[in-house]
Specification:
449 residues; alpha/beta; 6-stranded mixed β-sheet; 16 helices; 14 strands; EC 3.6.-.-; MnmE_dom2; metal-binding; GTP-binding
């Protein structure tokens, strides 16, 4: 399925650093390693060797460490050599050039992980987890990737597959040996299918949550001019990112900044104040603001607590109420009578961008809105590929349950239908796959992984 040549790549970025790593995998890995590094005749696996790194003419490039992992006890399942020089960009480039001269080929993105999958060291969900772990922006996204890497999704999917395969084997036995086996119990069959369906639905529910944890919450701040939207934006990001002034219409384009709330990445958007205006530039800003509001996962509708709700506030609220926004009363520090909470809305969160009062309450509300407050170390979140395959399996089982009576009289068709659902689950872990699917998955990896 793949050409078993020897590949090489830098496993660390090409930037100046204390230490770099060059990884070589394939049948010629040790042979190339011996030409590049001063090594004894007999090289022991999993032992660190200190020595000189040399080029084809025997001139010293650098000094460092070398590790050898003998197949199949390596990440790729092949012979692997890792060279640890100083993290000098010219040095690492020179080592790569010399390794290629001695017979290696520069690896494609994700090719080391692809070989690990093809050699049975990891399944497809674990391969995807490595890419997610590298790309993880927060601790919570890291935890989710580690759970995938540990095979927790694979375990659940394989349990579902085993349940379906058990049903297939019972039906097949009944078809082939009707005189020797008992007829399958209809109620047991139906209950088993419903049980698998319920577990698939539980996994499908994790997709949206996983997408947010991986990609981040799109959080838009909306309101009329001068209610403190930019001050709120600056308070979230922790510095004066947005210009704050007493003049209306100061923010004419949207601002975007990244931050984290309780380990969840957030893309925070400060939008132009929404109002009627004849100014062409401000109009464009307002149109962009309305577009960003539609794209947002959560909208913060901000008004000025010190002046109360105005007619202009209500006009804006009417435009965005379909987003079910969180109502934020800003400038709490300017309110003299803090017991006066007659703001038209019942669930206002009063905050002060100046003193950060009640910000913890606001952050909690944002996470609660997306059902992200609860966190478990064992949480599993599926990606789009898993989602599509689980959805396919779900649809097949729903079809079987719908036509259950008919299929009971046509066991061959029933067996084929359940097998189709089982094959969709097989694709998740990579039991069956195609070169196109693998190409799509591994093209998202960085070089050297």
């Amino acid at each position: 399925m793949y050409e078993k040549d020897t590949i090489v790549a830098n496993a660390t970025p090409l930037i100046p650093s204390a230490v770099g790593i060059v990884r070589i995998s394939g049948e010629k890995a040790l042979q190339i390693g011996k030409k590049l590094f001063t090594l004894p005749e007999k090289v022991e696996e999993r032992k660190a060797y200190y020595g000189k790194i040399k080029d084809r003419k025997g001139e010293i490039i650098d000094e460092g460490l070398l590790l050898f992992f003998k197949a199949p006890r390596s990440f790729t399942g092949e012979d692997v050599v890792e060279i640890y020089p100083h993290g000098s960009v010219p040095v690492i480039k020179k080592i790569l050039q010399e390794a290629i001269y001695f017979g290696a080929r520069f690896a494609q993105p994700g090719e080391f992980t692809k070989r690990a999958f093809l050699n049975g060291k990891i399944d497809l969900t674990q391969a995807e987890a490595i890419a997610e772990l590298i790309e993880a922006k927060t601790e919570r996204a890291t935890k989710a990737a580690v759970n995938l890497l540990e095979g927790k999704l694979s375990k659940k999917v394989n349990q579902l597959r085993e349940e379906l395969m058990h049903l297939i084997s019972l039906i097949e036995a009944e078809i082939n040996f009707p005189e020797d086996v008992e007829e399958i119990d209809e109620e047991t069959l139906k209950m088993s299918l419903k049980s698998v369906l319920k577990k698939i639905e539980e996994l499908l529910k994790t997709y949206r949550k996983g997408e947010i944890i991986r990609e981040g919450i799109k959080l838009a701040i909306v309101g009329r001019p001068n209610v403190g939207k930019s001050s709120l934006f600056n308070a979230f990001v922790g510095y004066e990112r947005a210009i704050v002034s007493e003049f209306e219409g100061t923010t004419r384009d949207f601002l975007e900044e990244s931050l984290s709330i309780n380990g969840i990445p957030v893309k925070l958007l400060d939008t132009a104040g929404i109002r009627e205006t004849e100014n062409k530039v401000e109009k464009i800003g307002i149109e962009k603001a309305l577009q960003k509001i539609e794209e947002a996962d959560v909208v913060l509708f901000v008004f000025d607590l010190s002046s109360g709700i105005t007619e202009e506030d209500m006009q804006i609220y009417e435009k965005i109420k379909n987003k079910n926004p969180i109502i934020v009363g800003n400038k709490l520090d300017l309110v003299l009578d803090k017991n006066n909470e007659k703001y038209y809305f019942n669930d206002v969160i009063p905050v002060s961008s100046k003193t950060l009062q009640n910000f913890d309450q606001l952050e909690e509300k944002i996470l609660q809105k997306l059902n992200l407050l609860e966190e478990a170390d064992t949480d599993i979140y599926i990606n789009l590929r898993h989602y599509e395959l689980l959805k396919k399996a779900k649809e097949v089982i729903e079809r079987v349950l719908k036509d259950f009576e008919y299929l009971l009289s046509n066991k061959e068709i029933l067996m084929l239908e359940i097998s189709e659902a089982e094959r969709a689950l097989e694709e998740i872990t990579g039991e069956i796959t195609t070169e196109d699917i693998l190409g799509n998955i591994f093209s998202k990896f960085c070089i050297g992984k």
